[in-house]
Protein 1
Amino acid sequence: MPTHPPQRVLHFAARVSACVALAAGTAQASHYSFANISDPSFLTRDEQRQLGRAGILDTATLLKWTASAPRRRWLAQHTTLAPERLELLATQCDLLRIEGIGPSVLVVLQKAGIRDSRTLGRADATELLTHLRSAARGTAMAQKLPQTDTLATWIRTARRLRPVLDLAD
């Protein structure tokens, strides 16, 4: 079981990790992994507030603290978020590691059956576009879906990502 630092250490670590990524040139504006947790549309204001009190200020830190079952249990005890909700947030943050995937596309990807980067890495771009069209039907995203070549790039990226999630399959 991991040792969990106090909230002020988590808060400081989130800021340091974002600064290190910016200095190293690994964080990009279109890459959501270092987005402030108030930005993603998949978090309610109450969830943002609770996570902020736990020192989680960005999606990279949220992924770190939701990637494993023991950490999700710890975070659930220190917030009112259920472990199942934290697992869903973990899968969402995992997909946000892929450049070009933002909160709006993320919702459609998950409706189309793409749970996380591992699932995306096993997808076929043409079939995925068909599923995305079905999942986005009747929404504003239906007109903004990525093309097959973009999906193929995301799939290749997902295959190269280091697995970070410990999920019940």
Note: Confidence is low (pLDDT under 50) at residues 6-33.
Protein 2
Amino acid sequence: MGEPETTSPDPLAEVRQRAYQAIDQWLDSFVPLLSTPEAPTLLELSEHLFKTRSQLLGDCLQAILDHILSHYTQLRQTHCPTCARLLYRKRLEPKKLTTLHGTVEIQRPYFYCVACRHGPHRPDGTPAGRRHSRSKAARSPPCRATW
């Protein structure tokens, strides 16, 4: 007899769970539209979908970003990309970003090198000291959107 198969845990289990919750909430938003005596028209369904899609996609994107960036928010020290000095995290900065797929919030560790006045790039691609309320993809045309 062979050894029992062992399956490795799903690395995206939490992301899937949060995405399923977002889909459930999104589907619940259709209840008022579908509870009327007359069936909604294709136009009404399409308008509702258009109006609510960014919340669904934003929630799914948030779950993925939280998973991807979890190690980044735990970062306590890093090296300055300019002078290689060891930098210690000053604080975590919450930042809301508007993307092509909805609004998300990320936690960014704040590092700053006093010696060369430089900070490492953050997970949203902006260097320290630069403030944008929209992601690079949201500021660019959709065909040029990149991660």
Note: The mean pLDDT is 81.
Protein 3
Amino acid sequence: MALVIADRVKETSTTTGTGTFTLDGAATGYQTFASAIGSGNTCYYAITLDSAWEVGIGTVGTGTLARTTVLKSSNSNTAVNFGAGTKDVFVTYIADKAVYKDANGDVVGLKIGTDVQAYDADLTTWAGKTAPSGTVVGTTDTQTLTGKTISVDDNTVSGIAASSFVLSNASGNIDGTVAQKAIPSGAVVGTTDTQTLTGKTITYADNTLTGVQPTLVSGTSIKTVNSTSLLGSGNVAVQETLVSGTNIKTVNSNSLLGSGNVSVGDVTGPASSTASNVATFNGTTGKIIQDSGKALPTGTVVGTSDTQTLTNKTIALGSNTVSGTIAQFNTAVTDADFATLAGTETLTNKTITAGVLSGDTTGGDGLLTRVMLQDTGWDYFDSGSTAALNYVNGSVQRWAPTASSSPTLSITNWPPSGALGELFVEAVNLGAAGTITWPTINWVKSDGTTTTTFGSNGVTLQSSGTDFFILWTRNAGTTIYGKFVR
């Protein structure tokens, strides 16, 4: 694909938008893009429609022109969204890409490429010259050189840290392969020079210490280091006496083993033992230890008089005294956990034989089986004017709503589903209370059918007097039935 310049290339197009143009044929006296430029090549193009215009680099196809690179346009130098109409599409010589001589005869627009040629007499000095990479600089310009050989005799070298020196390489040159070295404090010494080191760390692994050995014990010098005896020949074994009757010397004025002598006969132990077992003294000399046969316990070690929390332990009551709070099923047992004759207790799965129940007894919705009741009454509760009746208050309740209050009746805390709940209501002056909003109640009419509309119940409420009705449910109030007593 090449950039081609050609004369008298012009076609029309009715394509809209910002994409590739379909060319409709050459204008009179002009060539087509395909014949002059060639399919697959590029060219400088211009498109105009009224005040809209665009110039750029286009790629020629078979009867098409792709607007590959937009250089200038009436749309802020971006692709123009051309509307309907016939556009002129032609090859042009774009000003920004032109090379020409100005009024003074100087060449304008020429950029030096990889190889600069002598186009005419004005460029003869460039003939045969290869353009350098990067920016062209003069001999007196300041520049950073990379990959250059510098003669230090007549140049100034920068970039070397202060108080540092560098060494030349094998060829006698200074390059990036030689690290800069800081000038050390004090005198510079060689690897074979004798010197006194201060504040230095000597790595044992790659150095050898020779010369006078420091005296660890009076009259005895350290022989060798690394896998050999510190004192004398052979290894230091168990019970071996380092020095008998001689004080251990000090290091930096501090004794290695406090004061006193290293006595003859150190602590001895068995030839073998079990890992993690407790060691105990054997005898009274304080120098013989033995394997007790007892492993260290898990958790914290405690004494017989320490206070501790026992877990998963069995306590024999016959030989121990248990005091304080007793844990039962991981829960502390207190006096409240034991039934007393005079106390109030909650009994579960208990049988009461010939007992007497006094006071209020709450069954918690439990089932009372095989009971014969004698001399039994129903609890009576006066709910007053409130329309929120609570079944817990009793199965017989009185309700006297305020006149003209238009109350909304509700009943809560029915017995659980599967148990029959009955509520007998003594209603006072309901006819004077205004419009009553009832919960969903299946009212049983005199013919045995039911209705959820109170007005169809056939009951006229008394404005001055008492009406009695009973409500019942067997599914915790989901379905309620009702009947007025007349």
Note: Residues 100-127 form one domain.
